[in-house]
Each structure stands twice: as structure tokens, then as C-alpha cells.
Amino acid sequence: MPHNAQTLVDQLEEITTWISSSTLPNRSSRQRLARTFDVLAWFLLPEVRQRVQHWIREDYPQCSAAGDFHLPSATGACAVPVTWRHRFATAAAPAGVLPLRWAATSPPEGSIPDALLQFSHVVRDALAKSHALKERAGGSMKLDQWHLNWTVDAWSNWQLGDLAVSPESAFAPLAIGLICAALNITPAVDFIATGQWDLEKNRWAVKPATLESKLKAAFALGFRRFVVPPTEKSLAEDIFRELEEDSGEQSQWLSLPTPQTKTDLGAALLPILPMAGSQPSMHDRLEDRATWYDSLVSHDQARVYFESHILPDISHRGRRQIAAVDSCILNPDSLLSIYSGSEDLLWLTAVTWTPRRLVYLCTEDFAPRCVHFVQRLMDRWQDVVARCRHNSSIDDQEQRWAISVAAGEPSSDPPEIVIKKVAKDSTCLTQLATLRASCPVPSGRSCVIDATPGRRAMQIALTASTEPGDVIFCWWHSTSQATRRPVPLDLEPNLWVVEQDRRLRQLNPPSAVTKSSLCLDTNFPVYHPFEP
Asked: What pTM was computed for the model?
């Protein structure tokens, strides 16, 4: 006879009694627990789950390991976080995850919670209006052929139609799972989403109190990739920080995008798919790689991924844009930059310009990190530049050759690198003026001033110390709200040249022109405090 919600209630009450009285269940009780553990474990508090495992492991060593309750790999799979309306005993977690999938067959009657089954129809109706999803599916998209089923075999022996759950925030995972089913995509086993879609207000929402319990329950079950509503970004940051500190494990997460129109929810959710799948390779779309990069909470992981999967494309594009203005300023004699924590941008600037000499300015407190970065730059230079020269995302050999001719190949020889310590206070103005004066540039060569990183006072001082003929450069970009790192797809070079009368003449690389209205006026005089 199939198990049901009452079976869950009874077993959770038994477990609570055994734990509160410090009683070891007898062999018959342990056998009953072993038969239902693969489902029961998804409802238990983490510490209770481990206690139950200890009770039954000796007789039943095949019992699932702690934290090993991922979804099986299946097309259309969706882990759905829910809170319980059932009155469970204290052995149960306040929230849990239901392992579901969209399949072409209808589920047995009474097997799926009624609230979720009815809610799945709302999700199908909302996505059926998406023109973007139909286009991605090749024009044919019959969503009514998909039905909710359990994706874990052990759940097929249970009838949980009367299990009382709150389904509202199940909208996001069900919608992403249905898109995966329609596009024949198999989501990652550690991916999970949560979010309630407000059809009237055209926005995502979630109750802060239930968000915390759902994320903690999912993390305890081994999920590590999350998509959450943007309205609770700060709360999510705090929750993930706490979970990572307690567990010592890293997670990834993104905010749910808000659609531009009420009728195309699918268009907003399609960019989430790379996060739900496997790590994009260099041959995948740059947009997908950028999404993956933005989801990496760990800055170390993000730095490695940027260097290997983002840097070659952005560097190549930057060289083409600069070469379109004046290819003679590429491969300059000197590049002066300020060391900061944004090492991704420092890498990008170095391999885009490939100067003969790199001068990094840093304050005393940043000096050890700067030294470590410079050592990595020297050790990895040839390998990284080789990737940028042989950009694998450009398959057309003729196109790659044309780009190389137009922009010039980046030099594979590491530059001479100098670290200069500067003060934090106003004396850095004098220091930088002296430094720039000690950097004579051979005729026909250029000196590039990187005004992107560093403290504002240092940026101003560095810019004010320029000499006629210098090129002032910065990366124009948006900043990710989740990670506070630059958005790769927005990175564009902005350039000015310092004229003899110390005015700035703006250079407009292709595709950066649209932002020129926000740049310095070309007739704005450069204030030079070091003039006699």
C-alpha cells in the first residue's frame, strides 16, 4: 500500500519522541525507517537526518549519505522549495525541497500535492504567451504536453496529493524546469530556484521569513546553485555568507530577471539557463559565459574563470576598438596604472595594451597584494596572451587573421613591471608628477594612463600628471548588483589624448560612441597643477 502524508506525520512524531527521550528505536522501527528514508530525509532537520542515518546505517549501509540528496540528472527536472502547511513534529525542517520534473506522461492520480499540480497549470499558461520561448524552440512549443511527476524513484511509492504545501514561490523553479523540458535541457543536479511571480505587478517576490528557511533547507540537502528574487538581494547575500562560513563550501547565485513585458516571462528566464546547466566552455556564447561569471560568489573562482573564459574575447574586442581609432597607440612604451582589488580589470588592461613597461602604483597597505599579483602576471603572461591571440570563440580563420592585421597581435613577451608605492594623502600629487617626468617616451611611442582602478584621489592625481601626447584610458562598464564586479558585456574602452595646450581630445572607439555624451567635453581644459 502506498505511503501518504499521514505516514510522514506518524514517522516524524516517532522520531521526535525517540530523540526527546534519548531512546534508540528497536529493530522493527529501524527497518520501517530504512524503507522510507529516501523520502523522509528530504523533510528532516539536518541534525535529525544525521541521527536517523546513524540509527539505520549499521543494518542498512546503502542509506544515502548526508548532503547527498541532489536531483537525478533528467530533462525538465526542477527542485521546488516549499514551506509546509502540515503540522509536522519538531523533527521536520520548517521548509523543504520536493524533487519534481516535467515529463510527457501524466502522474498517477493523487501522487503530486494538489496545490502544486494546480499551480503548474498557471505556470504553463504564463509561459505559453512567450514569443521568445517559441522562437528559441524553433517556432513549435506545445507546453500542454508536459506534466509534473516525481523525479526520484523512491517517491513513486508515495501518494502525497493531500500534502499541504505553500506553492507560490514554486513559480520560478517550475517555470525554469518547464523551459528546460521544452528545450530538451537537463538542469544541473545542484540547481534550485525560488520566487513568486506577481502577474498583476509584473515582478518577482518572496516572503523574507520563508526565503531564509527555504535556502537553508536546500543548502543542507546539497544544492549549491541558487536563483532568488531581486527584491531580497541583501537578505540572500547575508544568508549565503552565513551558510558558506558555517560549511566552508562555496555557492553560486543570481537574481531573477524582470521581464520587459508582462506577456513574455520566457524572455526574462532564458538568460538563467546557463546557470542551471553545466559550466559554459570557450565555445559557448559570450552571453552565457558572462552569466556564469556573474553567478560565482567566490572571487577566486570568478578570477580564474574570467582569465580563462572571458578575458580572450573582451581583450580581443578592446584591441579592435582601439585599433579602429589609432593602431599606433597599441603596444605603448609605458602603461601607468593603480593597483586595486579588481585584478580582472588589471589583467584585461595589461593584455589589451601589451606595453613594453608596466608601472603599478599602490599604497603601503596594498603593496603585498600588488607584489603577489605582479608575480602571477609575470608567470602567466605567455599562457594568457596565447589565449587572447588564438581566440577560440572566433571560428573563422579569415576573420581572426583580419582582426590580427587590424589590431596587431598582442606581444607574447612579458613587459618590464615596476611597482611604485605612493601616499594616500595629497602628497601623491607631487609623487606622481615626479614619476611621470621620469618616464620619457621615445619618439613615435605612447604612454597610456589607466584611470580605471584605484582611489578617486589617486585617479585624479595620475590624470593631472599627464604630459602632452599621453593617452588617458579607462574601461567603461556597468557593475553587477550581486557581485559588485564589472559586467563583462559592458566593458568598453574610452580614450582621450592630451594635446600640446593640455586640452583633452576625445577618441571614440566603435560601439563606445553612444556613451560619449557622458564623457568629458572635448574642449574642456586639463588642469595641470605642476605647470610653472
From this structure: 0.71
